[in-house]
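Subject: Protein Mis18-beta-like

B.,
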Amino acid sequence: MEFEESLIIRRVDDIKLTTAAKRMEMMTVHCQLCNTVLTDSFGVCGEMESLDSLMCIKVTNDVVVGGVQESGHKGEMANCIFSPLKCRSCHSVVGKVVHSTPSRWASVRSVFLLYKASISCYILDSNSTVEASVLSFRLKPLRESINEVRQQVEEQRDQMMRIHSRVADRSITSEVD
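Prediction pasted inline below.
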C-alpha cells in the first residue's frame, strides 16, 4: 500500500517481495478483510506449514481471543484444544491459539497461529502489500545461523590480525629509522 493524496493504493511487486520475504524484512501483518494491523515482523516466530499458518509470539490488541474453546476431532488438530482468534474491527476469524496439544504439537502451545489465507503483509521497504500465502516465513535452523555468525567472526578476527601485523611492522620500521 502507498499513501497518495490521502488514498491507499494496493500494489504488488513480486521481485521485491520475494527478496524481502527471504531476508525477513520489516513488515506489518494485516487482516485481509479490513486491513487492521494484527502483528509485525518482530512478533513473527515462524511458520506452521501443515496448518498454513504464521506463528506469532505477539499480536496487537486488535486480535481478540474467542471465549469459546474448541476441540479438534480430526486432521492435524485432532486431540487439541484451541480458541479462535478474531479481528477486533471486522470480527472475522484470523487464526487460533492452541491451549492443549499432544506432545508432537508442543511447539505451538500458547503461540498465536494466524491463517495465511486471512492475512496480508505490508512490506515497509518496498511499500508493497502481498497476501501472506505467497510468502515463506520459514526460519533458518539455529545451527545454520550460528555457523554463519561464526564464519563472520573468524573473518573479522583474521582481518584484525592482518591489521595488527601491519601496524607492528610499521612500528618496527619506524623505530629502526
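The longest helix spans residues 142-176.

T.
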